[in-house]
Amino acid sequence: MDYQKKLISIILFTLFLSCIRARTGQFIYFSDAHLSLCYLPNASNDDECEINSGDAGLFGDYYCNNPFWLIENSAKKMKELLPNPDFIIHGGDTNEQFYHDHFTIIESIKFVNEIFDQYFPGVPIIYTPGNHDFFPTHNSPYYNTPFFTKLSYSLGAMSDAARATIQKGAYYSVNVNNMKIISLNTIMWYKLNDLTEDLDGDIADQLSWVESELESANDHNQGVLFIGHISPGCSSFSLNPSFTKDFQDQFLDHVQDWQEQYGSIILGYLYGHKHCDNFRCGTKDSLHILNPSLNPRKRINSAFRIYNYSDSEKILYDYSQYYNNLRDSNDNMYVTWEKSYNTKESPMNFQNLTCQNYRAWNNKLNDDQTLFDWFVSNYYPKYEPTISCSDSCKKKFLCAQIHLHRDDVEDCVY
Ligand SMILES: *[C@@H]1O[C@H](CO)[C@@H](O)[C@H](O)[C@H]1NC(C)=O
Ligand SMILES: *[C@@H]1O[C@H](CO)[C@@H](O)[C@H](O)[C@H]1NC(C)=O
Ligand SMILES: *[C@@H]1O[C@H](CO)[C@@H](O)[C@H](O)[C@H]1NC(C)=O
């Protein structure tokens, strides 16, 4: 009897231990698919590419938007690497950059989601709108329109609450495991949006909605992951950040408040848009990660990421970045995806993705030119030749990574 009791308590204790151990989950991140529905290899695709860019490559082109088969090939590779992700983030800018109308935008979003749905049936695909996913470009409305209604029925199954907020302002949240993923419509805060540029206050009630979502997540002890398309802070498409304002600062003040109040449940913010590999740390150490793009236009290589996270520890552990060397793929008529790096491994050696580690890394980048050159070689995922960054560029680049307010970046530089 005694022996049996002992055995049972040992079994129970082991079960208890396995319950409190941090659960590691994985998700896939891709962004900026920029699907070109009329892509033709070998054609001088003036409508789909930059004018006079020459003959378009078989698997895509450094001057063009994406053929669907490159996007499909990336999904196939993701499936090989991670057959059962918890969820997939689709970071926006699904539509091509040269041509827009409401119909093409909706069809592109559905097309790309269907590609991923075929490889990952039943896995939630969580989308956030990009500036090219509106017509006219950048012009997200801030009230219900037929386009928002159509969008709300084009993103697969979702809760009534999510459908309602998409119809209101193209933002929504999804609960997966013990996580809440909050998809922001950052285009309402974009300075090139003519419809909202003169608005201040809480556009389409998005900020107050986020606050209620955070409160609810906090009550239920959920982790919160934010996704959006356009990141705050100083940035540009080149390595040299500009100080122009392309984002409304009111969002930043809220980020700071959220971090102060709910920092312990927020894993971070993930963005696309810039087609580059970068990060931003804000006041109170809010973490903003800029992810590379699936589209190689503008002389970059396509890339996607696989993230590890814990919903019990409420932290992002690491990511692995995979890229396609498009020049080689077109030359060999065969697509390969290779790992560029993992944040846990050398040279980054991050124990986790937190501003504590990113700030220390920023200091190392400043002190060690070899590390800085390595980091820059991944900015446009291993595109060659690497674009160089002079001393003044380096200073701006590093300052922009550790401040979100433009004034703070300028103070850091000058
Ligand atoms: C495109 O050009 C390449 C090289 O000239 C050729 O091998 C290939 O068959 C062409 N493809 C098409 C679809 O015309
Ligand atoms: C991250 O995921 C990979 C599998 O994709 C796994 O091998 C690795 O141990 C995970 N990392 C952590 C910290 O759990
Ligand atoms: C994250 O990494 C830092 C530095 O390596 C470490 O001090 C901290 O305990 C880690 N946090 C978690 C939750 O693992």
From TrEMBL:
- Is Nucleotide-binding a UniProt keyword of this protein? no
Highest taxon of the lineage: Eukaryota
**Domain Sphingomyelin phosphodiesterase C-terminal intervals:** 297-413
Q: Which residues form a coiled coil?
A: none
Is the Secreted keyword given for this protein? yes
Q: Which InterPro entries match?
A: ASM_C (IPR045473), Calcineurin-like_PHP (IPR004843), Metallo-depent_PP-like (IPR029052)
Q: Where in the cell is it found?
A: Secreted
Q: Which PROSITE patterns match?
A: PROKAR_LIPOPROTEIN (PS51257)
Domain annotation Calcineurin-like phosphoesterase: ranges: 75-276
The stretch of residues making up the signal peptide is: 1-22
What keywords were assigned to this record? Answer: Glycoprotein, Hydrolase, Secreted, Signal
Q: Which Pfam families match?
A: ASMase_C, Metallophos
Question: Gene3D superfamilies, per this entry?
Answer: 3.60.21.10
PANTHER family in UniProt: METALLOPHOS DOMAIN-CONTAINING PROTEIN (PTHR10340:SF57), SPHINGOMYELIN PHOSPHODIESTERASE (PTHR10340)
In the record, the note on similarity to other proteins reads: Belongs to the acid sphingomyelinase family.
Descriptive protein name: Sphingomyelin phosphodiesterase
Q: Which organism is it from?
A: Anaeramoeba flamelloides
